[in-house]
Specification:
alpha/beta; Rossmann fold; 10 strands; 30% helix
Length: 257
């Protein structure tokens, strides 16, 4: 068994290109008799926002967990930055700690630590809630705290595991815009796992589709921001991705189950 390797970002391309933050080569992962990853190759550059799509069971969350260090490959090589953070579908806040303490868990109670928490909360519009208890927050507010907790560590790699799936439609759109702005400001490498094709197109610089243990489609999203359905280029990419996921002649707004 080859464990995932933690290494500084690789610099294997021309100097005018961003360095590679994530490199996966010939990765295999099995669960019992079921092969989830079968020779996966994947690169993500520093500052690049990649969306990972695929049918349920295609291995999206497995890839994220491996990059996060929560799982290992059975064989192959995985290089990731040392500083990486994860935002899950659930905020996973500690109910017995105030909001600012949730942002800086494990970093003590110094004035500098609190100031770092307040700065991170200000970025997500919640500095006024610093001394609130998690139970008083809405779902969207709790997820913004989770995002502040991830970004306060200034990660080189930010991993997002369907972070908006439990939110209502309006809050989800607002969160998508917030995370797009924050990632443009902080410039980590980003991988988001999602089932939502339109979400992938709104956020990502590149969309990768997993199928049969590997990548079946890898496409750059060269569209001006902000992006929304209705433009010819957006809808054409959406149709292409849905077809790759096995959905044909889909009306606007349909997402793959």
């Amino acid at each position: 068994m080859t464990e995932a390797l933690i290494a500084p970002p690789l610099q294997l391309q021309p100097s005018d290109s961003p360095p590679v933050a994530v490199r996966v080569r010939d990765a295999h992962r099995r669960f019992g008799r079921r092969s989830v990853l079968d020779g996966l190759d994947l690169d993500i550059h520093s500052g690049q926002f990649v969306a990972l799509l695929g049918a349920s069971g295609s291995g999206k969350t497995t890839v994220l967990r491996i990059l996060a260090g929560l799982d290992v490959v059975d064989s192959g090589d995985v290089f990731v930055p040392r500083v990486r953070t994860v935002v899950f579908q659930e905020p996973r806040l500690v109910q017995s700690k105030r909001v600012w303490r949730n942002v800086t868990i494990g970093r003590g109670r110094s004035a500098a630590t609190r100031q770092a928490a307040l700065a991170a909360l200000a970025e997500v519009g919640l500095d006024s809630h610093a001394d609130a208890w998690p139970a008083t927050l809405s779902g969207g507010e709790a997820q913004r705290v989770a995002l502040a907790r991830a970004l306060v560590r200034e990660p080189q790699l930010l991993l997002l595991d369907e972070p908006f799936a439990a939110l209502d439609a309006l809050t989800r759109l607002n969160m998508q815009q917030l995370i797009a702005n924050l990632c443009l400001r902080h410039r980590p490498a980003v991988l988001i796992v999602t089932h939502d094709v339109e979400e992938a197109l709104r956020l990502a610089d590149r969309v990768v589709v997993l199928r049969s243990g590997g990548i079946s489609l890898d496409v750059d999203v060269d569209l001006p921001r902000p992006r929304s359905p209705g433009s010819g280029a957006f809808d054409a990419l959406r149709t292409r991705l849905l077809a790759e996921l096995g959905v044909h002649d889909a009306p606007n707004g349909l997402t793959h189950p």
